[in-house]
UniProtKB/TrEMBL annotation:
GO terms for biological process: proteolysis. It comes from the Bacteria. One of its GO terms (molecular function) is cysteine-type peptidase activity. This is NlpC/P60 family protein. InterPro entries: NLP_P60_dom (IPR000064), Papain-like_cys_pep_sf (IPR038765), Peptidase_C40 (IPR051202). Pfam families: NLPC_P60. Keywords: Hydrolase, Protease, Thiol protease. The lineage of its organism: Bacteria, Pseudomonadati, Bacteroidota, Flavobacteriia, Flavobacteriales. Residues 56-184 form the NlpC/P60 domain. Belongs to the peptidase C40 family.
Length: 184
């Protein structure tokens, strides 16, 4: 029996999956990105994210990008480097990687794939109830996955009024935690 080389298998997978890519919609290992700074800003290409290399590489890049925004002020309805609300922060970070997510925290309730908190990875999103109502009212991005002791980065309207990292084990967040979702 003759075995194909790993590069042949990867190429075959790449070609097969590229046929699924329609209208710049992301399927599995593909995502739409700008191809280079020299091209028109609206030009997009498909970049293959090799799952064999590192499943967490995109999650790590998302976290690293978000960490560069630590200390950015909290601004109601903010969605720029001038200031963020919680969903504006998540939207801005994911949009940097051409990953479409909702702009409003309440729209995350039925978005993405729910995952057990024990299985979270860097870049997954944590959803929380509003402090005053029984609806999704806050969210953040997992930076250090440790189940119910995971750390996450978020724009808080609390005492700090800025982008911060917090532990899920902090009682105010543990009590309001609803679920973890994966969109990668």
């Amino acid at each position: 029996m003759k075995f194909k080389s790993i590069n042949t298998v990867k190429l075959t997978l790449f070609i097969g999956l590229s046929l699924l890519d329609v209208g710049n919609v992301s399927y599995g290992a593909f995502r739409s990105v700008k191809s280079s700074p020299q091209r028109n800003e609206n030009t997009v290409t498909n970049t293959f994210v090799d799952p064999i290399e590192n499943d967490d590489s995109l999650g790590t890049k998302i976290v690293n990008f978000g960490m560069k925004l630590l200390g950015t002020p909290y601004v109601t309805a903010g969605c720029s480097k001038n200031g963020f609300d919680c969903s504006g922060f998540v939207y801005y970070v994911y949009n940097n990687f051409k990953i479409k997510v909702p702009r409003s925290s309440s729209q995350f309730e039925n978005f993405g794939k729910e995952i057990p908190i024990a299985d979270v990875k860097k870049g997954d999103i944590l959803l929380f109830l509003s402090p005053t109502r029984n609806v999704i009212g806050h969210l953040g991005i997992v930076t250090n996955p440790k189940g119910m002791e995971s750390d996450f980065i978020h724009a808080t309207s609390g005492r700090e009024m800025q982008v911060v990292t917090t532990s899920l084990k902090k009682p105010g967040y543990t009590r309001r935690f609803v679920k973890a979702i994966r969109v990668l």
